[in-house]
Amino acid sequence: MRSSGCMIHFKNERGFTILEVMFALVIVGLVLAPALAMQFNLVRKIITTAGRSERFGLAKNFVVIVHEQQVADPTIKQSNRTELVPPTTLNYQLKSIENNPALAQLPGLHIEVVEISWTSLVGKQHDQLVTFLFRPELNDTQTKK
Predict the structure, then answer these.
(1) pLDDT value of residue 145
(2) Cα 94 to Cα 73: distance, rounded to the nearest angstrom
(3) Are strands 2-4 and 7-9 parallel, antiparallel or unpaired?
(4) Mean pLDDT in each 10-residue stretch from start to end of the chain (145 residues)?
(5) How far, in Å, CA of 59 to CA of 89, rounded?
(6) Residue 58 and residue 55: Cα distance in Å, rounded?
(7) Residue 55 neighbours by CB under 8 Å, 6+ apart
(8) Which residues make Cβ contacts (< 8 Å) with residue 123, sequence separation at least 6?
């Protein structure tokens, strides 16, 4: 080691220069950027799917609640419910099948539609749970009226 003024110079230089370290960081960044973007998209899809799955569970529970109400009052064709956690609006409709000629031959077959609405990070979301319901007694109450 020898000294020249304020600078110290080493005869055997070991290690990397700052330029080599910067190039290495740029290469690592270019390699990892697509992987991080894919990870972000995967996490977003997982969160979206989990939220949708939870809301379909709420819709199924809502159908069960409406069925219990229909035992007491078979004329119930529509019902609404707002869940607070997670914030969700559910709208139930019971429709008879008259538009489809193949299914209209089955008396007592109805379509239940639960419209699910919520606001997520991406904006307002809508989905539907559609089920078929076979209840001949609903046709009997409709024809008696």
Answers:
(1) 44
(2) 13
(3) antiparallel
(4) 57 79 94 94 90 93 94 91 92 86 82 92 89 76 46
(5) 10
(6) 5
(7) 86, 88, 116, 118, 127
(8) none
Residue type, 118: W
Q: So what's the pLDDT on residue 118?
A: 92
Q: What is the dihedral of CA 27, 29, 33, 34, to 10 degrees?
A: 20
Distance in angstroms (rounded) separating the CA atoms of residues 52 and 47:
9
**What is the DSSP-derived secondary structure letter of residue 106?**
S
Tell me the two tokens of residue 75: 């004329």
Q: What does the pLDDT read at residue 23?
A: 94
The reported pLDDT for the residue numbered 13 is 66
